[in-house]
C-alpha cells in the first residue's frame, strides 16, 4: 500500500534524507521517498498514518495527511 503525506519545512537534500530515515523507522514501512519541491513524502507499506505523521514531526518537520 502506498501513502502520501504532506511535509512542510524541507529545504535541502539533507532534509529529505532526514524525513526518509524517520519514516523508515516506523513499523510497517518498507520504503519511503521525500520530495522537498513537492512538499510530500511517499511511503510504501502498511504503517499507521498517525505514526507516519508523528515520526516526521519528531524529526522536526510539519506533516499532515
From TrEMBL:
It comes from the Archaea. SUPFAM superfamilies: HMA, heavy metal-associated domain. Residues 1-64 form the HMA domain. PROSITE patterns: HMA_2. InterPro entries: HMA_dom, HMA_dom_sf. This is Heavy-metal-associated domain-containing protein. It comes from Halogeometricum salsisoli.
Amino acid at each position: 500500500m502506498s501513502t502520501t503525506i504532506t511535509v512542510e519545512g524541507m529545504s535541502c537534500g539533507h532534509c529529505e534524507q532526514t524525513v526518509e530515515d524517520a519514516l523508515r523507522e516506523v513499523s510497517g514501512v518498507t520504503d519511503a521517498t521525500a520530495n522537498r519541491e513537492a512538499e510530500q513524502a511517499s511511503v510504501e507499506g502498511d504503517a499507521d498514518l498517525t505514526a507516519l505523521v508523528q515520526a516526521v514531526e519528531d524529526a522536526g518537520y510539519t506533516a499532515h495527511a
